[in-house]
Every structure is written in structure tokens, then in C-alpha cells.
Predict the structure.
Amino acid sequence: MTAEVLKYTLAQVEALELAPGTEHLKLEGWVPLLAGEEELRQALEKAFDYRGDVTLTLKSGERIEAYIFNRYTGPTLAESWVQYFTPAAPDKRKVSYAEIARLEFSGKDRAAGKHWEDWVKAYNEKKVAGEKNIALVPDVLE
Amino acid sequence: MAVPISQMATVATYVLKKKLAGNKRYPLVLMLEPLFRCNLACAGCGKVQYPPHILKKQLTPEECFAAVEECGAPMVSLPGGEPLLHPQIVEIVNGLVARKKYVYLCTNALELKRRLPEFKPSKYLTFSVHLDGQREHHDFSVCREGGYDIAIEGIKEAVKRGFRVTTNATFFDGTDANGVRGFFDEVMDMGVEGIVLSPGYSYDKAPDQNRFMGRARVRRLFRAILSNRKPSWKFNMSPLFLEFLMGDRKYECTPWGSPAYNIFGWQRPCYLLQDGYADSFKELMETTKWEEYGVASGNPKCANCMVSCGYEPTAVIEGFGSLKGFWAMVRGNFSLYKDDAALKLLNEPAPHGPATLVQIAEPAESLEVTNA
């Protein structure tokens, strides 16, 4: 069982009035220093959780722009891997932790921003301006 | 009683067979997400925040059918994204109906009226229309003015054409119980088969992180909403799950009850949490560390979850898995849940918008004590 699991008692959980939200880490543009095995593992765990593309530079020199959606953490770096889609290829791909030399959170974080308060503010401003059919629209799929 | 007898019989037979075979873990509903693309940008949704190349991907009909066969669940829910944006959604639905799966196509109904002529009414097909409340509440919730009116047009046309239709509502903090009860009257007047509802889940990727109700507040809200029911209200859900939401039952999550499959694979451990993916359903069932999930595990990501995809399977298995459960379910289907204390809750001032965020940044030392 992971350490993260052991945090609340049942009584505390049952008494929750408001559930704590998540504070988003600002990872966009970050290039973690991969000084050792633990740093690499932690950075790739964040990349797995990131809702944007990252750029992986392999020890071979190959650069891969990828959306990482899965990871397996084995006892060694060679036995650990991330699974990803690239914008160009239709198939799922894997690369071992041991092959990764550099990681950059290069793509836009699609989960960042757009808070409820922003929507309420925009709605009120547009309403006062007399606009009709006020809406948030999904991002354009460029 | 909103769920047709034939569907109940299918699910009951399935549960009994699994029980007799000694299966401890089995799925009831496959959450089949054919795509993540959506035509809404709801602030409470954490499902669609992906780069464009991911949003452009979608499952093929063959991939959908293979997942359904592999999983074997008697019911299939098609959420997303917006399934009606999938260019082959008709082929997918027809293939599932041909396999005699009870299909719930979850839609915001912005495209429903236009697409209805392509579908054929069937006892196996239900359009589950996302409606979060009355006009103003729904439009604000999905961040689109006019969304309610378009959805209503779709619902009415679907009912007119003989389709099974349910409405599907998610409630966040700030929900007005009286407004919800008025909403129930409105949708039942439209001729829908039943209502589906659930408290929202605190998606960590949702833009709005301030309106997730804790369990105590969920129970109070649903006690106010669901007690003293009108006879005209029908719920397309297990009555035992509704009793759980009202605080009358204590359940554990059954995360394998509603497994999710999408372009990434079989999602661990459930439809709501993304803790990785398995390549096959067998791998999902056999290699997921189930003991790390559910409220009893102490996992903070599960702490406030009372969502239907985790807890309704628990209720359904209890309802069809024992005489006591079955009797409770029958009784629940016909009870109006008279409750004077709940009436008083309805007379409390209506909440106005999101409450102040209570952020537990670092667990205090006392919180480290666990129930594990």
C-alpha cells in the first residue's frame, strides 16, 4: 500500500462538509533536473499526471513529443516504462525509464486555468453588456 | 419503478449466476468512452482536458465490440466526451444492441434532435440526457446559455419517437434542494422513463476545484431532495443506492463494478480515477491493487466520493444478491420516504453559489491515524 493512502480516518471522511480540491502544480515549461534515479521517477510520475504534451529526449539523441497516459514502475529503471501517444502516430508506444535523458513539460497544460470564478465573472460582464447565448466553448482542435 | 422488468431480470440473473459461480469481483456496467471530444466546456468536468491530438482520437466500432465482449457486463454506458460527436456512433450503438446489451448513451443532447432519425427505438437503448437542473441552473452548470432549451427539445423528440429516455444530473455544492425537486416535476412531465442522479466527483483536473461536497453535505442534500417524494417521480437507479446517498445505508465502493475502457485502454481503478491503464480486462481485474481504493482504504482521492459508478454496483449486488436486499429494493421502489426532519431542511435558506473552499493542504498529525 502506498504512503499516500494512509491519511484520513473514516470518521473524518464521513464528517467532511466540503471536499478539498486540488491545487494544480504549474508544470508548463518546466525542465526537471534529472540528477538521479529518484528525481527521474518523480518527474515521470508528474509527467504521467500532466494534461499536456511533454518532450522526451532519449539517450540516443532522439526527441519525442508525447502525451504520457500510463506508466509502470518496476524495481529498476530498465524495467520501468512510460506509455504514450505522439501527435503524428496512431499507435500506443512505450519507452523505458532507462532510455530517457531529458524531460520537458513543453505542451500547454490543458487542465490549468478556467476557474469557476472566471466563468462567473465573464458571465456577469457579458450579461451587463447585453450579450445573448453566453457560453464557454471548448478549445479549438488545431 | 422506472427500470423495465426485462432489464431487471437480466441484471438479476447475471448477479445470481456470478454469485453461484463464486465470483467475488465482476462488472455490472461497462463505461465505454468512445472519445473525449465534447461540445461543452463545463467547469465541473475533468474528463476532457487533453491536447488536441488526444481529443481527435476515438475508438473504432470493432474496438468497442471487443471491449464489450471481453468485459461481459450486461449494461454498457457510453459517456465521453460527447458520444454523438463520434462519426460511427450509430454503428457502435447498433452493434451493442445486437449483442443484447442495455445501452445508456449519455449525451448533453445538443445534437440529439438532429441525430435521432439515425437511431431505432429499442428496449436495449436509452438516451441518458445530461440535465443538471432547471433552466438557469443547468445552463450555468454547463457554462452555456440556451443549453437547457436545446436539450429539452431533444428529449421531447426522443420521447415522441418512442425511445427510452432518462435524465442524468450531477450535483455540486450550492445546489438548491427545492429547485431540484421542481426539476424532477418538470422532467417527469416530459415523459422520461426515470431520473438518474449523482453527487459530483472531485476530479483533480476539473477547472472548478471549489464546489465538491464532502460526504456529510452530500447526505444532507440528498436527504432533503429524496425524502417526501412525489408518487410521479421515477428513478432509473437502485433504490438502495439512493438510500445510501440519503445516509440510510453505509456502503463500500465497488470500483470493478463499472470498469472504464477508452483510447488509453482499461482504466485503473475506476471510471473516475486515472491511476494507469491495463491492456486487457483480465489484466485490469487481476493486477489492480483494489485494496488501495474506496473510502475504507483511507485513500484521499476516494475520501469524498459517493458517485454512482462506484456505489451503485454495491447497491445492485446487495439488491439482487440476497432476499433481504431484494425485499429492501422492492420496498424502496414504492416508498415515498416520509421524513419531517427532511422537510425542515427544505425550509432552510437556499444556498447561493459556491461556498468557501476548505483546503486541507497538509494532513495534521492526527490525520495520520488510519483505519487501514
